């Protein structure tokens, strides 16, 4: 299977409110279903601290995480592995960006300069909330799922 590896909102073409295509396949590579789902959930829920969510998704990360994993129909094994896959996907992607920035890729350098603090906060957020993310896939969602 080929994974896109960067399904952020900027790489999706929308027409009349519907996603119709992916663009920007520079990071595409062999991958797995779980890896693709981890990338999508990480970016679209989005799974990070609320301080780093500035749109209508703020305060809804856990609900969106659960809905997305339910919609993909993850089995028990995939549910057990998705949280680790999300963290690994985050670290993998940002290691590529950091390396590109360090090697003079101007686009990656510009992005890294503004994203580095958020990247570190998100990595810390994953460590701090690992068990909460795992529980979100098993237990009913609590009221008001905002997570620091």
Describe the 3D structure.
This protein has 148 residues and is mainly α. It has one domain (2-136). The chain has five helices and four strands, in the order E-E-E-E-H-H-H-H-H. The chain has helices spanning 33-44, 61-71, 76-102, 106-128, 130-136, and strands at 2-3, 12-15, 18-22, 29-30. The protein has a two-stranded antiparallel ribbon with strand order 1-4. A two-stranded antiparallel sheet has the order 2-3. It is globular. The protein starts with a strand and ends in a 12-residue tail after the last helix. The mean pLDDT is 92.
Keywords:
148 residues, mainly alpha, two-stranded antiparallel ribbon, 5 helices, 9% strand
Q: Tell me the Rg in angstroms.
A: 15 Å
List the uncertain runs: none
Largest sheet: 2 strands, antiparallel
Report helical residue fraction: 40-55%
What is the domain total for the residues?
Answer: 1
SSE topology sketch:
Layout: E1 2-3, E2 12-15, E3 18-22, E4 29-30, H1 33-44, H2 61-71, H3 76-102, H4 106-128, H5 130-136
Antiparallel strand pairs: 1-4, 2-3
Helix pairs in contact: 1-2, 1-3, 3-4
Concise account of the structure shown:
By secondary structure, the chain is mainly alpha-helical.
